[in-house]
Amino acid sequence: MVGLEWMPPPGTVWAVEAGEYWDAVRVDRSLGLLALKELGDSAGPVIQDPWGKILYFLVPPGSTRDWDVEHTVPCGPSHYVGVPPLEAEEHSLHWVIPPGRGRGCTRPADLRRELLCVIRPRAVVPGGPTGTRAHEGGSLERAH
Questions:
Q1: Residues whose CB falls within 8 Å of the CB of residue 72, separated by 6 or more in sequence, listed in order
Q2: How many domains does the chain have?
């Protein structure tokens, strides 16, 4: 996500093709908000579509190529994502977490771990947190 040349000017929304500046992971809003809560400060930019009740997590370009998390849609090249201006309001397409201020994309491994924890609370995820970690609806254990 080098510069922000992919950001639209105020008052407009651009359809930006994923794959050059970032890829995106499309997630149902309820699952996405739970995962976002667990990601905390490690979350990168996130777009919310209030009409479709969808979140788009921006991840590094090329990182959705082998994405396999159920109930999510990987958006790489040939997928277009509606990108709102920075000042967009909550009733329209808007940023939950805006880009900029040194914030890079969400790390795919972190997003995958938190989404799996929300989707399958008792999942054992390789590379997950050490030991058992409490989450709403269950726990996540690290594979040995």
A1: 25, 26, 27, 31, 115
A2: 1
Residue 99 included in any domain: yes
In a domain? residue 86: yes
pLDDT in tens, 7-61: 999 999 999 999 999 999 999 999 999 999 999 999 999 999 999 999 999 999 9
**pTM here?**
0.84
- Exposed e or buried b for every residue in 51-72, given b needs 16+ CB within 10 A? eeebbbbbbbbebbeebebeeb
Structure tokens at 98: 């805006």
What is the distance between the alpha carbons of residues 60 and 63, in angstroms, rounded to a whole number? 6
Pairing label, strands 72-75, 94-97:
unpaired
Assigned domain for 63 exists? yes
Contact 70, 9 (CB under 8 A): no
